[in-house]
Write a structure and sequence with these properties.
The chain folds into three domains: 78 residues, no CATH class; 96 residues, Immunoglobulins (Immunoglobulin-like); 134 residues, Sandwich (Jelly Rolls). 16% of the residues lie in helices and 37% in strands. The N terminus is likely disordered. The chain is α+β, with helices and mostly antiparallel strands. The chain is built from five helices and 16 strands. A hairpin with a 6-residue loop joins strand 3 and strand 4. The N and C termini lie far apart (68 Å). The structure holds calcium ion (CA). Calcium ion binds next to strand 16.
Length: 331
């Protein structure tokens, strides 16, 4: 039944994509194929595909007889049964791990055996209504997935379904799953280490792939307030560091540190120190895991903070987020 419904949706999707092309074909300039310059023939093939997904509407015999063989083949391919495969077939290290990050955000972590372009549909019923994509991987098929589900309501049951398209055209889909968000959080603290509060990265050991600080995996991703972005060093392991200037010197009473981690058991920071611009060293702070930010009480005045990795499992160490809480002081 689910496969049938999926087929139905695929047919609808194809029709939606094809509709503008059908309109284009119907409202074209009326030129016959003979009149179309050779270089334009290629670009005029898309309306042909629109014809191909129309078979369930009336196409009279005379029209069909004018459809070249290649188009007929295309129509057969579109009409062929798609098999929507259970997404469990491509899990590398177990089922997806949905993490409720806050009263308004959740994140689904999973690794697939083969590259997939994945999406999650979610909502308060199985009609879903929202769709989210992996944010960090530039839109292509990949294996390490961590899409964020944003804009959730507190204390609400959500349904979600994971879907993926492989590079060979296979389509994978999970069953409907659910999670509940926690009650509304009262957050009045201002993160002085956020770019929103005027903090900036003034030094970093490296960014993955040579990215600039404001690109994917760049150091700014640790200060952007988003759980969906991460600073990743370029294989710095225990040598990774990041240095952050606050908007102004502040008396800090707490910091929060959220290490990144990769499914191949690398990139996770276990311990790091924080050194102020006056040379005071805080920590080392121990991070039990990469599932959340860990908070540590401090009492220090600083205008800048340098975080140095002390211990990790190597590789592309980095941070999902860093935060510092306190009160600005006069220079
Ligand atoms: Ca981030």
């Amino acid at each position: 039944m689910r496969i049938f419904q999926a087929n139905h949706k695929i047919a609808i999707t194809l029709l939606i994509f094809a509709l503008p092309l059908i309109i284009a074909a119907c409202s074209g300039n009326g030129a016959s194929a003979d009149e179309v310059p050779a270089e334009d023939i290629k670009t005029e093939q898309q309306p042909d595909e629109a014809v191909a997904v129309q078979p369930k509407t009336t196409v009279d015999t005379a029209e069909q007889s004018q459809i070249p063989q290649q188009q007929a083949d295309s129509r057969i391919a579109v009409d062929a049964d798609f098999e929507v495969r259970p997404i469990e077939e491509v899990f590398s290290i177990g089922p997806p791990d949905l993490q409720v990050l806050s009263d308004s955000e959740a994140q689904l972590l999973f690794v697939s055996d083969i590259p997939l372009a994945c999406s999650i549909v979610y909502g308060e019923t199985t009609a879903y209504g929202s769709l989210t994509l992996d944010q960090d991987m530039d839109g292509g098929a990949h294996t390490d997935h961590h899409p964020i589900l944003p804009n959730l309501k507190p204390d609400t049951l959500y349904h979600y379904r994971l879907q993926g398209s492989a590079e060979d055209g296979a389509i994978y889909m999970s069953e409907d799953m659910t999670f509940r968000t926690p009650p509304e959080e009262a957050t009045t603290e201002v993160n002085l280490a956020s770019m929103e509060a005027g903090a900036q990265v003034i030094a970093v050991s490296s960014n993955f792939g040579g990215a600039t600080n404001d690109e994917s995996w760049g150091a700014n991703s640790a200060l952007d307030g988003s759980r969906g972005s991460e600073w990743s060093s370029n294989g710095d392991g225990n040598d990774a560091f990041i240095e952050i200037a606050l908007a102004q010197p502040s008396r800090l009473h707490a910091v929060e540190i959220w290490t990144r981690a990769m499914s191949n058991n690398t990139a996770q920071i276990f311990e790091l120190t924080i050194t102020t611009d006056s040379g005071e060293v805080l920590g080392p702070f121990t991070l039990p895991d990469a599932t959340q930010a860990y908070r540590f009480d401090v009492d220090v005045v600083a205008g800048a903070l340098r975080l140095d990795v002390v211990d990790s499992n190597g590789g592309n160490t980095g941070l999902v987020e860093f935060a510092a809480y306190g009160t600005p002081v006069e220079d």
